[in-house]
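Quick one from the shared queue. A colleague (R.T.) flagged HTH tetR-type domain-containing protein as missing a structural entry in our internal table.

Convert sequence to structure tokens.
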Amino acid sequence: MDVDTPAPAARRTAIVDAAIEVLATEGGRGLTHRAIDRRLDLPLGSTANYFSTRTALLRAVTQRLLELDIVSLEELPARRMSKDRTASFFAERLTRSFLPDMRHHYIAHHEVLLQSARDHQLRREIAEARQRFVKAAARILTAVGCADPEYHAPGLVAMIDGLLIDQLLYSDKPFDVQHLTAQIKRLLMQC
């Protein structure tokens, strides 16, 4: 193998990461094999060697985004925390995760959500992944002493999704950590 040629797994990851960038900058209509080949300066047809259809490419993007999000769940502390500390942890985590280099990640994530409205299999995969986040939220709520964590977990996930959308679409300023902490704490205190 040529020293300059990346291994298939590395090339595949590079293609999917480039697809995330294309989705974020050009939208769903811009996600083509050619756009990715151009972005990576690959010979035309290279992306199609790894993902024969746009649907296969879109599913790989979805899996990659979910994989990156799930890694972030592993950062959650396993120990019991107070509601104040949990609210602070989430606020700090959201603030840190919404750095400029992550903006494309969230834009691409929402592009995938829009694409899933017309793709039943993709919608099913996203729904299954969301359940993993809801279960993680329930574990966190259990750790903070929530009386009914299964009831409140979907609300916590929806609130975080909403905060991200609000930040993505309507704000040109960074998250206000204190305000964010207060919002999350208010939800936690209802448990």
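The mean pLDDT is 85.
DSSP finds nine helices and no strands in the chain.
Added to the table.
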